[in-house]
């Protein structure tokens, strides 16, 4: 069996995730061995929302695999401005490229694109719904530091309502046994009920507000930005934007093996003084995105292994 598109972590098995991340580890260790895997192939990156990491790391991954890319980093300057639909944009992209990475503000845009496209569609994040490739690189970073996918205690912190990395990370953690998630947020930004319904019975979880309460017992804290652009009322954003600010003092009582992650960009949730601490792994996490996205592109272009 082959998976045709990567729109949601919910479509993946733990075996698939393990195999993909082991492939990413091979690519990190021996990049030269994979330098021709996408030779003659073209990636279309269609970004309807801003991005630095997702777009550039997919492009870097495609170049490292010997491929090329085309696309846009904003709908400005494309025929979307003249009213062209997403469906027709996808029809054009699949005529010009062998694989599509799509970031869109509309939830469900990835599913629509996958239904239309003749070539694999990889979600680069849609609305507040999901960001599956981010969750895969998050788990890769956790695996590199803790050496396991299971028996992990993880606090996911901040904007759990609008942050799209939150559902995807929760789903991927729920594929492996004995993980525990602490959802840590202000009341207004609690994790959405549909996400809890999806993980119910698959992974243990707890909702709380006080991060300091759990810091000494967790393996990973995953801090997220409060998503200003998704608040219907800007006043509501101002009330919660500084709910959690990590400083060196915050991390005074963590386990020796503890790591601090953030999908980035940060806008004040982690003070710059934290960057030099050994627990700060968020820039390495972003770099890992290249290897994980190399493995994703290789899988969907070449299907090198069976699911
Ligand atoms: N983590 C992430 O998706 O970053 P970008 O928005 O810069 O792609």
List the helices and strands and how they pair.
Elements: H1 14-29, E1 42-47, H2 53-64, E2 68-72, H3 86-96, E3 99-104, H4 109-116, E4 121-126, H5 132-146, E5 153-157, H6 165-173, E6 180-184, H7 193-199, E7 204-208, H8 211-214, E8 220-223, H9 234-240, E9 259-261, H10 282-302
Parallel strand pairs: 1-2, 1-3, 3-4, 5-6, 5-8, 6-7, 8-9
Helix pairs in contact: 1-10, 2-10, 3-4, 5-6, 5-10
Bound molecules: phosphoric acid mono(formamide)ester.
Residues 51-54, 125, 131, 134, 263-265 line the site of phosphoric acid mono(formamide)ester (CP).
Descriptive tags:
binds phosphoric acid mono(formamide)ester; Rossmann fold; single chain; 15% strand; 5-stranded parallel β-sheet; alpha/beta
Number of strands: 9
Shape: globular
CATH hierarchy: architecture of the largest domain: 3-Layer(aba) Sandwich
Q: Could you give the distance between the termini?
A: 6 Å
Relative helix content: 25-40%
CATH topology of the largest domain: Rossmann fold
C-alpha Rg (nearest Å): 19 Å
| Bound chemical compounds | phosphoric acid mono(formamide)ester
CATH superfamily of the largest domain: Aspartate/ornithine carbamoyltransferase
Helix/strand order: HEHEHEHEHEHEHEHEHEH
Mean pLDDT: 96
Q: pLDDT below 50 for ≥5 consecutive residues: which ranges?
A: none
Give me the side-by-side strand order of the main sheet: 7-6-5-8-9
How would a crystallographer describe the biggest sheet?
5 strands, parallel
CATH C-level label of the largest domain: Alpha Beta
Strand content: 5-15%
Q: From the helix content, strand content and strand pairing, which structural class follows?
A: alpha/beta
Whole-number count of domains: 2
> What count of helical segments does DSSP give?
10
């Amino acid at each position: 069996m082959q998976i045709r598109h990567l729109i949601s972590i919910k479509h993946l098995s733990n075996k698939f995730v393990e195999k993909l991340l082991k492939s990413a580890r091979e690519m990190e260790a021996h990049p030269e061995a994979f330098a021709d895997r996408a030779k003659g192939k073209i990636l279309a990156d269609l970004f309807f929302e801003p991005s630095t990491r997702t777009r550039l790391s997919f492009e870097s991954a495609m170049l490292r695999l010997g491929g090329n890319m085309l696309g846009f980093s904003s709908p400005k300057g494309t025929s979307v401005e003249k009213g062209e639909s997403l469906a027709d944009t996808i029809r054009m992209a699949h005529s010009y490229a062998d694989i599509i990475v799509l970031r869109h503000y509309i939830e469900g845009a990835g599913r629509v694109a996958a239904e239309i496209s003749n070539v694999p569609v990889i979600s680069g994040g849609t609305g507040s719904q999901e960001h599956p490739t981010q969750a895969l690189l998050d788990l890769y970073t956790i695996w590199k530091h803790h050496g396991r996918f299971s028996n992990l205690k993880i606090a996911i912190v901040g904007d759990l309502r609008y942050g799209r990395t939150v559902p995807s990370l929760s789903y991927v953690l729920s594929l492996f046994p004995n993980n525990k998630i602490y959802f840590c947020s202000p009341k207004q930004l609690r994790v959405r009920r549909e996400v809890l319904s999806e993980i119910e019975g698959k992974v243990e979880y707890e909702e709380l507000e006080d991060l300091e309460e759990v810091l000494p017992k967790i393996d990973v804290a995953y801090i997220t930005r409060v998503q200003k652009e998704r608040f219907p009322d800007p006043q509501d954003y101002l009330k919660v934007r500084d709910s959690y600010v990590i400083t060196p003092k915050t991390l005074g009582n963590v386990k020796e093996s503890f790591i601090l992650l953030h999908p980035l960009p940060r806008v004040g949730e982690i003070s710059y003084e934290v960057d030099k601490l050994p627990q700060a792994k968020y820039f390495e996490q972003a770099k890992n995105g290249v290897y994980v996205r190399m493995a994703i592109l290789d899988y969907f272009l070449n299907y090198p292994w069976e699911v």
